Amino acid sequence: MSRENIRRKLHWALVLGLLLLAGAEFLLRGPVRFARSTNVNDFISPYIQTRAWMKGEDPYSPANLVALWPSDTEQSLFLKKDLADGSLVLKQGMPTAYPPTSFVLLTTVAWLPWNLAHHVWLAISLLAFGSTVLALVSLLGFQWQEKRTYLFLALALALAPFHTGLAVGSMVVVVVGFCAVAVLAADRQRNIAAGVLFAVAVALKPQVGIAFFVYYLLSRRWRVVTTSVILLAIMSVIAVFQLTMNHTPWVDNYRYDNRILFARGSLGDFTESNPLRFSLVNLQVLIYTFLPDRARANLLALLIAGALGLLWLLLLRRRADSKNDLLALAALTVLSLLPVYHRFYDASLLIFPLAWSLAGLLEPRKELAKGTLLLILVFLVPGGSALEQLQRTSHLFAVRHSWWWTHILMPHQVWALLSLSVLLLVAMRTSAATAPGQNSDAGFRYSRKEPERIGSSAILSSSDR
Predict the structure, then answer these.
(1) Strand spans (E) along 160-230
(2) 302 phi and psi, to 5 degrees?
(3) Is 460 a residue whose pLDDT tops 70?
(4) pLDDT single digits (tens) 441-457
(5) How far apart are CA 424 and CA 419, in angstroms?
(6) Which of 71, 25, 266, 49 is nearest to 167 (CA)?
(7) Whether pLDDT at 295 is above 50
(8) CA distance 415 to 334
């Protein structure tokens, strides 16, 4: 057997080994944990709220949440206690402030008894994750005989935001799945299907789906955008009509739930009043460590994100094929995480720049793709939450008030996102424009020519001859 064949087999063994390890970690940290958390998780609140909406009752009322708690699961002790002192929304984030449109869609699951709905939601979430991966593989034209395809699968399975999202039953995993399939549909010119899928994503979780809607709006994909707007309008009318028909006062509670989300001590608070603040990834978390003033931190975060967003828009206008540009879309998804409240699992959006980086490793200018990949590797572990737990131990008492611990290490996930945003903008600036006469139907797909085998880059070779 030649040395080249031995090296090729070793590379395959390494990639497949990583895939098996990532798959095991994915199952244990995601689905297994959710299967065991039947009493309290992120899905039980929207499930109960949807059932309240179906009955014509106020879905944003804490009293209704406790009264309609599923009889086939144990009611946690904190529920009645926090309801009595009026702190249920502040301390637990329940009822959630999801838009009324989400209840229209969640009726497909909420009519089931909780014990069954719990398992159905897990199945939907796993299906959404698989759809995300397969859609991006198809979008970029990755081949199943390529090592980079399996490396992408391994890294996708290893992304900790997906683990956390699945473990708590967050809607973000499902929303990212809809967005990924919608991007693929738009690339195949199935505009109405793409518009429907984007509308579902925005209706379920606007702060995640809106970036994709904005991208296709600025790309002037009018059939996609129009379809989304019409469907969102229909769902909004249905959601509000159901409550109006039953004369249900819900607006005040909805406003309160949204307002309390950012109050001091809430789960969305980025100050020291929230012991879990470093599980957030928005820019305010980082800025507050330097500028401990809530209003100024919010203002500065908006200014920085706005400046980066304006630069993104200018670069988008200069690109030759902005209608089929995964790099620009990936950059926007990362930028969307910076200015407003986002928890760690919302960083599941990083699967888009991850896909671009692996495709870009075979392009002439691959340094920026390598840098992107290295920054995304930070999110293979839930670093912020892990450090918060370590910080509570006496072993770190001597260092936890040091400058580097407070300003660099604890908010390292936000540093990584900010750096990733800048790097992707630089990539947009330096990447070559589409050559005149190039087939625009190529969409997001990259060429599959064989790269030069230099050093360790052979592990990502596009074929095995």
Answers:
(1) none
(2) -65, -40
(3) no
(4) 334 654 444 333 323 33
(5) 9
(6) 25
(7) yes
(8) 12
